[in-house]
Design brief:
Largest sheet: 21 strands, mixed
Shape: elongated
Number of strands: 29
Structural class: alpha/beta
Number of helices: 9
Length: about 500
């Protein structure tokens, strides 16, 4: 007999016994009565209902802690990254992170740990991110009844940072959209280390994808700061633009220790919003070079009539006023202090003449005027200082901004030709040259040395055998710009 047979016999005996029970009066009704079923089901389900509710409450509490802790931790990481970016140091990184952490938490404030802050590498960079970790530990009412332990919530945040610098610029192109706003080429030498900036947002972008070697298969757009050839020499100190810088220029500049910043968002025209002086009601200026000829003598006699000896016209001396059709120097010249309005013509300084200013001067370009400084002239010109500018009616703040303004292009001046600074000059220009509507060509063999010079133009082209190697220390008029970096939460 198999082992199943005894079990079958027992089941048969049980069935016969139950059948016999139904023969007892009232037993059938008892067996069929289901009134207590709901109570039994509720009794069996109650532990699961209570347990589910308890777990729901605990998990809600857990995720509330985690959400607040994560937010506070994220803010701590971002604050720490900004601290490193702004100060260039990790000295106060942890303090700033902990302050941001404490400000952004409430519920977990009594049972969290102090955040741990450390510098980390990100996306191939070195020390270019901050990782912050923190935790909070406390007993959950329901869960701890079974585990007998507290629950710990742990979070981690990583914030990466890029860019950030404080730069000073002696050469600024203010055109906001053109490609090649600053262009360097030929055998130009620019090693003055005083900074180049372009407000242009023009950018060269790879839109054709990349091959297996990482080479772009198709470019669109133009770089805001570009180069032409590779014979030039560059050591600018800093090169910044709202757009992009050509790869070859970037490589050469960075190899010489320059800081190259692209997509800068806060570059600005240092003279924006300030108008040039007006020539309305200003008398014509006077300038005489040659002592021979009837016309020259008549000019001198007319100018000197009724004037004291100290105010009389001197040959080779230029006097402030309006110069209709331009002003071209023809001998060694001294400019008296004051305003020179060049109207519908060219300010031309060339030849082998010595040119200097007696006090601060300002040349104002109007009605299509431009300037051309070249040839073999020995030049020493200085712009107006703040006191002289305030005497013209500028406020103290305006005078400070345009301090030492030497050449000032009036609003709407549409020059027929661009402006040129070239030649083989021993040139000392102490001041600012501002031609926001027109191109400034620095070419030829211009040798601009030891000058407190600030060049601001629509576009700036550095070509030929340009040689700019030295600038004065601590110039009074070079704008300082804080280039804001970027911080992003990456994990």
């Amino acid at each position: 007999m198999t082992s199943i047979e005894p079990a079958r016999k027992r089941l048969r005996r049980l069935a016969r016994a139950l059948h016999s029970c139904t023969a007892i009066p009232g037993a059938k009704g008892f067996v069929r009565d289901r009134k207590g079923n709901a109570t039994m089901l509720v009794a069996f389900a109650m532990p699961m209902l209570i347990g589910g509710g308890g777990m729901a409450i605990d998990f809600g509490q857990y995720y509330l802690w985690k959400r607040e802790l994560q937010y506070a931790n994220d803010q701590a990481a971002i604050a720490a990254a900004w601290e490193v970016l702004d100060s260039g140091s990790t000295a106060k990184m942890s303090d700033r992170a902990k302050n941001a952490f404490s400000v952004n938490e409430q519920i977990t404030a009594d049972f969290n740990t102090d955040p741990s802050v450390k510098l980390a590498n990100y996306a191939g960079g070195v020390g270019n991110s901050v990782i912050v970790t923190s935790s909070a530990t406390k007993r959950l009412p329901f869960t701890s009844f079974f585990t007998k332990n507290a629950t710990t919530v742990s979070v981690s945040s990583q914030a990466a940072f890029t860019g950030g610098a404080t730069i000073s610029s002696c050469m600024i192109a203010v055109d906001e959209h053109s490609g090649g706003a600053v262009t360097i080429g030929g055998n130009a030498v620019f090693t003055a280390q005083c900074g180049i900036a372009a407000l242009s947002d023009s950018a060269k972008v790879c839109t054709g994808g990349y091959d297996a070697g990482g080479n772009c298969l198709g470019w669109t757009g133009e770089d805001a700061i570009s180069d032409n050839g590779n014979s030039y020499e560059i050591k600018a100190g800093s090169i910044a633009t709202a757009g992009t810088v050509s790869d070859t220029l970037t490589a050469k500049a960075e190899a010489n220790g320059d800081t190259v910043i692209e997509h800068a968002s806060n570059l600005a025209d240092p003279f924006a919003g300030i108008d040039a002086p007006s020539s309305e009601g200003v008398a014509p200026g006077t300038y005489v070079c040659k002592a021979t000829g009837k016309k020259t003598k008549e000019t001198i006699d007319a100018f000197n009539e009724g004037k004291a000896e100290t105010d009389r016209l001197v040959l080779g001396t230029a006097y402030p006023g309006v110069y209709e059709g331009g002003l071209s120097l023809g001998c060694d010249t001294v400019f008296k202090s004051g305003l020179y309005f060049i109207r519908d013509g060219t300010l031309t300084i060339n030849g082998n003449y010595t040119v200097q200013s007696e006090g601060g001067v300002m040349f104002v370009l109007e009605d299509g005027a431009n300037f051309k400084i070249n040839g073999g002239a020995d030049i020493n010109l200085s712009g107006m200082d703040e006191a002289e500018l305030q005497d013209l009616g500028y406020t103290a703040d305006e005078a400070h901004k345009i301090n030492t303004m030497l050449i000032f292009e009036a609003e709407g001046n549409d020059a027929k030709h661009g402006n040129t600074l070239n030649g083989n000059s021993n040139t000392f220009l102490n001041g600012a040259l501002y031609t926001k509507n027109n191109i400034l060509d620095l070419s030829g063999t211009a040798d601009v040395a030891n000058a407190c010079l600030l060049l601001v133009a629509s576009k700036v082209h550095l070509t030929g055998t340009l040689n700019m190697t030295k600038w004065c220390k601590d110039p009074p008029n070079h704008p300082t710009t804080i280039i804001y970096g970027n911080v992003s939460l990456v994990a």
